[in-house]
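Lab notebook page, bench 4
Experiment: in silico fold of construct C2
Operator: M.H.
Input chain length: 356 residues
Purpose: comparison with the prior construct
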Amino acid sequence: MTRSDLGYPPSDVRLDWTAALLGFAFMSGLLLDGWSHAHTVTDTFFTPSHDVLYGTFTLLAATLVAAALRNRAHGYALTRLLPRGYMLSLAGVVWFVLGVPADFTWHLMIGVEKNLGILLSPTHLFLATGMALVLTGPLRAGIASQRAPRLLAQLPMLLSAAAFFMELQFFTQYAFAFDAGFSKAMAPIGYQSISSSGNLAQMTTVFYRQIEGLFAVIVHAMLLAGIVVFLVRSIRLVPGAFTLLFVAAIATVSAMIANDPLTYAIDALLALCTGIFADVLYARMTPYRSTGRFRAFAALVPAFHYTLFFVFEALLAGGTWWDPNLIVGSIALPAIIGLLLAILASLPNAEALPAA
């Protein structure tokens, strides 16, 4: 019997840790790159943040390729050169490598992107797709092998999930909920008299500022609830998993975006408290044992997140200029989003439709 007949190579703890740590380091480099674009004048491809970005990717790619070559020498099939979960990461390496010269050429043609162009550049989205495949290798591997609910066993998987969550937030940072002007200090002029002023400019400004905030709540709630639903549905989690995930992912992205210590303190504290709440609720509700509890858990975590957000706005940031309808609605919407995602994730397998 050849190695090819035995299926995939066995799981490799060293590969898990290396891929998870380098993936998290890569995302840290990406956040550093985002910060540098926002705070410095960048007119060249060769920057310190790009050195971190592409340096960590090179190490990660080399790790995956070396493991694949070693397993090929041991007789494994070309389609099963790495442990379960990592073949997509190897494909992501190829995808990313193809995107680097395209990105470099794009910069030469139209210059370095500014503002939202950085996030919506076709070559950057191409690179992001490849990197998402690479980053989630330890996550897929952990789920495939159903790691025991012990911290050391699941930590590479959780770091991988955090890195992916960071990437999602990075590319939707224009909708980062905690920097969308909720505090009273950032209220638009005329918001207190919007109903009676008759000033079209004031009414329009207030209207679009409220849309901006609601858009931020909806987008970030989808990301937060989505990662919660996916993890609960996929594997039995170690105590502290959500605290680690939220602090590692949300606090790091906030460090790139927040321009004042108070905003960052609120973001970091919110991530910590939401993570603790989710961990305690997970232990008490055991949502993996019941569809009803699973759906309730998916609704309660994002609802608590935004309840606490407005509490912190009131206690630490001088309050919010939003009226009670918007506040309550901004708590209810994340709960509904979480519930709907959980319902979709827990639907029974539907029978195929009959052919026409």
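Observations: The chain has two domains: 1-171, 173-347. The radius of gyration is 22 Å.
Next step: discuss at group meeting.
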